[in-house]
Specification:
2 domains; 10 helices; 69% helix
């Protein structure tokens, strides 16, 4: 009798990839799927706990790029953006986080996103220690100001303008950028840290 040995153990990278495919598909079919994204948080935490941070950084190195690509396709999905921020905080290297934030902002400015999900992600990213360094924060803020010529929030009353039918996508986008810049100006105080990554 010949027996074949079938190994049932999976590598951590196979588990992460398999779970990512499952969660991203669930997010495709069920927008703002908090339960699926929370499941992925649990998988990341499990990998970090079992493998340790240096090993998991290597294992999870491709995941933020995949999540960013997914979020760009689903820009109004707050659960996806929230998970990306979680990844930044949990395992992201500041330089990689800065690169991902820059690419997300590139997409937002290119597609003129005005949705609150993305802009909440930007505000939380810039307000979070460990996501990006002081120089990257300052450069991002300057870039956002440059994207909207007057740069600061105005008294633009979007709900009133929308109801009157006077708002186009570009105006909504500019108002969203202004609100984000205003919030950042009001709530983010640059910190001085000798360990800040520039």
């Amino acid at each position: 009798m010949r027996t074949s040995s079938l190994s049932l153990s999976l590598s951590a990278s196979e588990i992460i990839n398999g779970e990512w495919r499952l969660v991203s598909r669930a997010g495709d079919h069920h927008p703002r799927n908090y339960y699926a994204w929370n499941h992925m948080r649990n998988i990341v935490d499990l990998v970090v706990t079992r493998c340790g941070l240096p090993v998991c950084t290597t294992l999870l190195s491709l995941l933020p790029g995949h999540v960013l690509a997914w979020c760009i396709k689903h820009s109004s999905d707050v659960s996806g953006w929230s998970f990306l921020l979680f990844l930044y905080r949990r395992v992201g290297a500041p330089k990689e986080s800065e690169w991902l934030l820059k690419n997300a902002i590139d997409a937002a400015l290119s597609f003129q996103w005005s949705g609150e999900a993305f802009w909440s992600f930007v505000k939380a990213s810039l307000a979070s220690d460990g996501v990006c360094g002081k120089k990257a924060r300052t450069m991002t803020l300057l870039r956002l100001r440059k994207a909207v010529p007057d740069g600061r929030a105005t008294s633009l009353d979007m709900p009133a303008l929308k109801s009157a039918g006077h708002v186009n996508q570009a105006a909504q986008h500019k108002a969203a950028v202004r609100r984000a810049v205003s919030w950042i100006d009001k709530n983010w105080q640059p910190y001085d840290s000798g360990n800040d990554i520039i």
